[in-house]
Design goal:
Blueprint: E1 2-6, H1 12-15, E2 20-22, E3 26-30, E4 38-42, E5 48-54, E6 59-66, H2 75-89, E7 100-105, E8 114-119, E9 122-127, H3 130-134, H4 136-147, E10 153-156, H5 165-168, E11 173-177, E12 183-187, E13 190-194, H6 209-219, E14 223-227, H7 233-240, E15 245-250, H8 253-268, E16 278-282, H9 285-291, E17 299-302, H10 314-331, E18 336-342, H11 349-363, E19 367-374, E20 392-398
Parallel strand pairs: 1-4, 9-10, 14-15, 14-17, 15-16, 17-18
Antiparallel strand pairs: 1-3, 2-6, 4-5, 5-6, 7-8, 8-9, 10-11, 12-13, 18-20, 19-20
Helix pairs in contact: 2-4, 6-7, 10-11
């Protein structure tokens, strides 16, 4: 196995179980590791620190096991079983009202580079590192062993996430079985179509599950605006809560079409009443809120895509969040509620809160914070890897 030695004193983060080794921390490499190869990591003084996947770039190694240079033959099944048992304790694996959850959340489950979402009888896998991509078939086999006959298909959707794409030429494909999409899932008793083949990320934003349920609590008898609605997660919850009306806005035609199917599916199932008022618009959400009059909506959901994926874009992203939220605060009705989010990992919760403060101050309205929100618990944050806390949100009450 290739050996990587760190510079003096650069092992401290690993001793605190942070799973990343940055290229600048490396003193020397004994051997020539290929992309995704397993390597052993040593301190400057030669102490074995762990083993992980090598990758060219800023994050050079992602540690899979600390204090060893070997992975057991049962490594993947043991790790997936641990992740499964964690979700079982959360009440997600055997729920009668929810059959979709995140099984593996990368560093949060001490499996850096790996994401697995379960949609009823289908597992959707994403590799965010070269090493995970190379062992995707082993992971698929471990999933089948873990779930037995409960899994009908395992789908690899790594074409847009794995680094070094010019080396691997990844193509999204089924690793086991096959299932037609869109397919339906249950979340807190609501029905959603999910298209993991063509939709964003793995097909659905499971991280907002608990935040959607909280919004449902506030939506009754309110006129709701759902900006960046995607396939209607917040919209369906608001309609089920007997809101006065719901308006959904997204720039993706395919997302809006699937949203309309979700609304109809829940109407037919009696989850949404046949009289519930819903309108959808395929247009730019920022321009839509700017063009609307004041006081039309009593509750506004602002859940945009990541405005900044790298630190170099942080300043522009914060300005964009400020403008968007200032428009929402200005337009919401007296006594209105705003659910506002950022899923940009480089925007920390303090910077986000300060940006919303600036937006509120710009409007001159009195604003109170009702809740501080984060990702659902099946997207856990490893306490040694705070970078995993990517989703942050605020619920605002606007006078």
């Amino acid at each position: 196995m290739v050996k990587i030695f760190l510079k003096r004193s650069r092992e401290e983060s690993l001793e605190r179980f942070h799973p990343w080794i940055f290229s600048g921390a490396i003193q020397r490499i004994e051997g020539s590791p290929a992309e995704g190869e397993l390597v052993a990591v040593y301190s400057f003084d030669g102490e074995l620190l762990g083993t992980g996947h090598y990758q060219s770039g800023s994050i050079a190694v992602r540690i899979l096991e600390f204090g060893t240079d070997k992975l057991s033959d049962r490594f993947w099944i043991e790790k997936l079983l641990a992740s499964y048992n964690f979700r079982r304790k959360l009440g997600l694996t055997e729920s009668s009202t929810t059959n979709a959850y995140r099984l593996v959340h990368g560093e949060g489950d001490m499996l850096p580079g790996l994401v697995i979402d379960i949609y009823d009888d289908t597992a959707v896998l994403q590799a965010h590192s070269a090493g995970i991509y190379l062992v995707r078939n082993q992971i698929s086999d471990a999933l089948l062993e873990l779930y037995g006959g409960k899994l009908r298909a395992v789908y690899d959707k790594s074409s847009g996430t794995v680094p070094s794409r010019e080396i691997f030429n990844p193509v999204d494909a089924y690793l086991f079985g096959e299932k037609a999409t869109p397919a339906t899932i249950l979340e807190n008793g609501k029905i959603f179509n999910v298209d993991w083949c063509h939709g964003q990320k793995t097909g659905f934003f499971l991280d907002q599950r608990d935040n959607r349920a909280l919004m449902e609590h506030y939506a009754k008898s309110r006129n709701v605006l759902n900006l960046f609605c995607y396939t209607g997660g917040f919209s369906i919850y608001a309609l089920a809560a007997e809101s006065t009306s719901v308006t959904s806005v997204d720039s993706s035609r395919s997302a809006v079409e699937l949203l309309e199917k979700n609304v109809e599916l829940n109407r037919q199932s009696g989850i949404i009443s046949k009289e519930a008022l819903h309108k959808s618009f395929c247009t730019d959400a920022v321009e839509y809120i700017k063009s609307e009059g004041k006081g039309i909506y009593d509750l506004i959901v602002v859940d945009p895509p990541a405005f900044a994926k790298h630190k170099s874009a942080l300043s522009n992203a914060l300005r964009a969040y400020q403008r968007l939220n200032a428009a929402a605060i200005e337009k919401v009705a007296h006594g209105g509620i705003i659910f506002t989010f950022s899923c940009s990992q480089v925007v920390d919760k303090i910077s986000f809160a300060q940006t919303i403060f600036s937006a509120a101050a710009q409007t001159g309205r009195a604003v109170r914070i009702l809740h501080r929100l984060a990702q659902a618990p099946d997207h856990p944050v490893n306490i040694y890897h705070p970078e995993g806390e990517y989703l942050k949100g605020l619920v605002l009450f606007v006078e």
